[in-house]
Amino acid sequence: MKYNDIASLIESLSERDLSILESLRIHRALTTALIRRLHFPISSEPRESGSSKSHATEMAAAVATIRVLTRLESRHLITRMHRRIGGVRAGSSGIVWQLGASGERLLRTRHGDPTRRRYSEPSPSFIAHTLAAADLAIRLYELARQGEIELLRLEAEPECWRTFLSAHGARQWLKPDLFAITAGGDFEHHWFIEADNATEHAPVIVRKALQYQHYANAGIHQQEHGLFPAVTWVVPDEKRQAAIRAALDTEPKLRDLVAAGLFHVVTTDEFPAFITGNHASPAIP
């Protein structure tokens, strides 16, 4: 596809069309239902940027969503994955979408990015984790639209990854699922967010917590912002919540940071109230 063709294609797309493509670029995969929540508000919801109008009912919004997505698919801007979340009963809301070949080229040109991203069919576990992280991101967008928080910054993978030097001078990576800065009143709150699907064993969680400890010890975030983000695992249920809390509490190397309030474990249902509760980010030296 030539530059002139891409320029013409961009001109033919609505602001909402481009916003949908950008969302798929950021989050890598989204279901129809997640796209509906993000870009097709119903009349009781505030409008998102790129949403030309609100819809009277959720059904009307869902119909409009699939109509737009089908049109974008016909132009090879997006493509549906073979795996459907929730099975056949989920209907069109369970279709998982990612950028198509034309959509990838369009956004690469739009952003001046020379690196081609190849989109293939990921594993079921990768899709599930990606969608879980996207759901949490969209919950933050929804809280902002409702006026519950100010969402000053939101980064998904890989933008939210951080690199630092270990005590021995080796380069290391910290790879959270999301990084966010929210505000309430006169205070900013910084968050590293882990979307947990209860698939990792406790030692893996502890190793990830130790990576956060090493990054905190490097002092990079504190030097720039004066605080360290609250590290929050968002889990599916209370059983998983208790298991992760126990794993973190019983690791001797994490005792000081657990006591300092660095780590939090909340269920998906608790997540919105936890964020709006303005839990302070720990001031780790």
Summarize the structure.
By secondary structure, this protein is of the alpha+beta class. It has 2 domains: 3-122, Arc Repressor Mutant, subunit A (Orthogonal Bundle); 145-276.
Sequence-ordered SSE layout with sheet pairings:
Blueprint: H1 3-12, H2 15-27, E1 30-31, H3 32-39, H4 58-74, E2 78-84, E3 95-99, H5 101-111, H6 124-145, E4 150-156, E5 162-165, E6 171-174, E7 178-184, E8 187-195, H7 202-218, H8 220-225, E9 230-235, H9 238-249, H10 255-259, E10 263-267, H11 271-276
Parallel strand pairs: 8-9, 9-10
Antiparallel strand pairs: 1-3, 2-3, 4-7, 5-6, 7-8
Helix pairs in contact: 3-4, 7-9
Low-confidence stretches: none
**Widest beta sheet: strand line-up:** 4-7-8-9-10
Largest sheet: 5 strands, mixed
Number of beta-strand segments: 10
- Our Rg estimate from Cα atoms comes to 20 Å
Number of domains: 2
From the spread of the alpha carbons, the general shape counts as: globular
SSE run: HHEHHEEHHEEEEEHHEHHEH
SS class: alpha+beta
Q: State the separation between the terminal residues, measured CA to CA.
A: 52 Å
Mean pLDDT: 89
Separate helix tally:
11
**Approximate helicity band:** 40-55%
Strand content: 15-25%
What does the model show?
With 285 residues, the protein is an alpha+beta fold. It has helices at residues 3-12, 15-27, 32-39, 58-74, 101-111, 124-145, 202-218, 220-225, 238-249, 255-259, 271-276; strands at residues 30-31, 78-84, 95-99, 150-156, 162-165, 171-174, 178-184, 187-195, 230-235, 263-267. It contains 11 helices and 10 strands. Strands 4-7-8-9-10 form a 5-stranded mixed sheet, sandwiched between helices. A 3-stranded antiparallel sheet has the order 1-3-2, sandwiched between helices. It is globular and about 55 Å long.
